[in-house]
Amino acid sequence: xxxxxxxxxxxxxxxxxxxxxxxxxxxxxxxxxxxxxxxxxxxxxxxxxxxxxxxxxxxxxxxxxxxxxxxxxxxxxxxxxxxxxxxxxxxxxxxxxxxxxxxxxxxxxxxxxxxxxx
Length: 118
Hints:
- 34% of the residues lie in helices and 22% in strands.
- It is α+β, with helices and mostly antiparallel strands.
- It starts with a strand and ends in an 8-residue tail after the last helix.
């Protein structure tokens, strides 16, 4: 599955999240949240399976090594990583002017990126 977000949608998405006890959740309107629960791209990256971002170092080579794979260049490495996770039901997020992020389907649904499933 793929999700496409413009830069504005990405920033609004992040602003609509909070992190508590290492778990991401959606903010509820009218509820105040402590500043330390604010989510930015760096915090969100800790919940991603993998990422190839202009703004955040996703360590493509380290991820590839963790998967016990090899590639000739970074583009090939990212393609292998992307295929690995997509074959396992993860969601590919395309972020305008940033790159691609891969998250679990369960996280994508919980955060409202996909319709709630059965």
